[in-house]
Amino acid sequence: MVGKVGIGKPGRLGGGQQARGASGGMRVLVVGSGGREHAMCWALSASPLLTRLWCAPGNPGTAQVAQNVPIGALDIAALVAFARENDVDLVVPGPEAPLVAGIADAMAAAKIACCGPTAAAARLEGSKSFMKEIADAAGVPTAAWERFDDAEAAAGFVRRRGTPIVVKADGLAAGKGVVVAASEAEALAAIDAFMIDRTLGEAGASVVIEECLLGEEASFFALCDGVNAIPFGAAQDHKRVGEGDVGPNTGGMGAYSPPPALTHAYADDVMARIIRPVLGELARRGTPFRGILFAGLMLTADGPKLIEFNVRLGDPEAQTLLPRLRSDLLPGLLAACEGELGRFDLRWRDDSAIAVVMAARGYPGEFARGSEVKGLAEAASVPGVTIFHGGTRATDDGRILAVGGRVLTVSATGASLEAARSAAYVALSRIEWRDGFYRRDIGWRGLAVARSA
After folding, report:
1. CA–CA separation, 49 and 46 (whole Å)
2. May I ask the CATH architecture of the domain 214-343?
3. Tell me, what's the pLDDT at 249?
4. Which parts of 301-360 are beta strand (E)?
5. Residue stretches of the chain with pLDDT short of 50
6. Could you tell me which of 98, 367, 404, 416 has the fewest CB atoms within 10 Å of its CB?
7. Looking at residue 209, what is its pLDDT?
8. Cα separation of 9 and 236, whole Å?
9. Do residues 291 and 275 touch, judged by C-beta distance below 8 A?
10. Which CATH architecture has domain 150-205?
C-alpha cells in the first residue's frame, strides 16, 4: 500500500512503499533512448527505493545514471526475457511505439509490473479516430471531425468545409503527422502526401480532418491507475521548427513549465471534464488506462478542449516536468500499477523550468550526422542546468557525436521563468557544435504574460 508522498528532493517519500524498498530495493527497467528516457532515469536514480536501474537501449546520458542494455525499444520478446532473467520489479516504457505494440500486455503475461497502458488502451495515441470516438462517447469537448480512407473524399470534405482546417494522419507519426492548413492548397497537399505519396507509411493511409480550434495550446499530464488519476504537471511545447512558431512541425523544439494560462482552477476543470470521463469510458469498455495520460489541449474562450491524447510523457515536456517534481517518482509509478492513486499525491517545486532542444542542421527533414558536440561539462556547470541526451553516441575515446535529429535538451530551473530561461541560454552558449541549432525564443508566451503582470 502507498501512503502520501513526503516533501523533499527527488528520492524522498513516506508511507507504505518504504518497506518494499527496505526489503531488497526495486529493480527498474526504463525502455527508450531519447531525452525523455534520460530525464526519467535521472529522476528515478535519486530514489532511495532503487537498487538497480537499466535503460534499453539508452544513450550516453542514461549511461551516467543507469546501465544501458543493447535491446531495442520494439524488441518486446527480448525485453521480457531480460526483465525475467534480471528479476526486474518494474518496467517503465518511455516512447509510444512499444506501448502501442503491446509491451504492457507482454509484461503482464510474464507477471512483471509495467507502468503503461495495454495495447488496447494505447490506441488513444495509436489511432486519432479511436481517440475521437472515445472523446465523443465520454462527452469530452473536442473539435468536430471526420475520418477518411479515400483521398478524393477527404479532399472533397476540405473543399466543402473551407479553411483553416487540420489534417492528421490517423496512425503514429512521431509528431509529424499533423498539418494545420491555412489554405485549401495546403490541406490538399497534406492529404496527397499522407494518403497517396505515403510519406508517413501506413500511418497516413487514413486521415482525420477536424475543425481548427482557436486559443492557446498546452500539454497536461495525469498519472492514472485505471480508475483514479492525479495531475502530473503541465507544460507548453514549441512544435514549429522556427522562431516565432514558423516552419514545419517537429517532435518539439522546447517547452516550459508551468504555463501561466493553465491555473490550478483550469487544471481542476481539465481533470473533471477530460481526464476522468475518458478513464471512465475506457474502464467501461474493459480497457482501463494505467500510466501517464498526456492531453494536448486548446485553452479556448469556452474552456479547455481536447486536441489529442498521447499515452506517455512528452519529449521535451518531461525535461521540464521532472526537474520540478519534488516527490519521489518511483512510488508514484508503482501506485499507478497497483491501483493505489486514490490515496496518493505528488508534490511539486514552485520553481519554473524550461527545456531548449538542440537539433541537427536540416531537422525535421534530412539532417546532418556524425559531428562532434563539445562543451557539455562547461554547459552543465551553469547553476540550475541539467543536460539530457537524445540523439547522441559516445565514442571509445569519450567524444560525443550527434547521430539523431533532436540531439540534446538543455533544461534549467529557476525562481522565475525568466531566470530559468537565462540559465538555459547561458549553458547553450557554451556548447560547441557546428551542425547544431536551437530556437532562441523558447518560453516567449510565458515571458510575455509574466512581464505584463
Report:
1. 9
2. 2-Layer Sandwich (3.30)
3. 84
4. 303-310, 352-360
5. 1-23
6. 416
7. 96
8. 24
9. no
10. 2-Layer Sandwich (3.30)
